[in-house]
Design goal:
This protein is α/β, with parallel strands linked by helices. It has 7 helices and 10 strands. It starts with a helix and ends in an 11-residue tail after the last helix.
Length: 213
């Protein structure tokens, strides 16, 4: 079994990813989705957490060997960045959603030197907007952002396009295509739902996937 499939099955097993095309979830953005992903649940599953952190460390070594600093996204990426930092011996920090209004009014927590080669640790990539904001904050502060490592990506066209335009590379442990295939093989969803979910992935604004063909 590939690492991608192993991680996908683990996320399904602990309910970090729930597939429910007949009762769509509504994201904060208002998008109706057949899938909901909450990778924070991986933190309370030690065996799976160990697989994920080891996998993220492997992505880091394979794709960003020159990394000098890890920066987690707030809030879901913070713990993962800390654990991967421990495994790799790298320093870490995190980027807030906005600057504090008190104290030193930091948005970046942790020491960042100008020119420091930095990798962002994210739990989930959907439309790409959130992680690109983090990358931009780090770049403005003088970091050389090498790219992103993440647990799961939807592989949305909008997200891929945004990342490319922002010159941000991302490497994920697993993705939607692997996950829905595994879910179908394990009997969690009928095979006919794969096409519906992929139609959502290709264009979330087109809600025709909600109706069965």
């Amino acid at each position: 079994m590939s690492t991608e499939e192993k991680i996908a099955r683990a996320l399904l097993e602990i309910g970090a990813v729930v597939i429910r095309p007949d009762e769509p979830f509504i994201w904060a953005s208002g998008i109706k989705s057949p899938i909901y992903c909450d990778n924070r649940l991986t933190l309370t599953a030690p065996a799976i957490r160990a697989e994920i952190e080891s996998g993220l460390a492997g992505l880091l070594s394979a794709h960003y060997p020159g990394c000098e600093l890890l920066m987690g996204t707030s809030t879901a990426g913070i713990a993962h960045a800390a654990i991967v930092g421990h495994l790799t011996g790298l320093p870490m920090g995190y980027v807030r959603g906005g600057a504090k209004t008190h104290g030193r009014k930091n948005q970046i927590e942790g020491r960042l030197e100008k020119g420091q080669r930095t990798v962002v640790v994210e739990d989930l990539i959907s439309t790409g907007g959130s992680v690109i904001e983090v990358v931009n904050v780090l770049r403005e502060a003088g970091a050389e952002v090498l790219g992103v490592v993440s647990i799961f990506t939807y592989g949305m066209e909008k997200g891929l396009r945004r990342l490319a335009e922002a010159k941000v590379t991302n490497h994920s442990l697993t993705n939607l295509d692997v996950l829905v295939s595994a879910a179908s093989r394990d009997g969690l969803i009928p095979e006919t739902d794969i096409a519906r979910i992929c139609r959502f992935r290709d264009d979330p604004s087109d809600e025709s996937w909600i109706d069965r063909l």
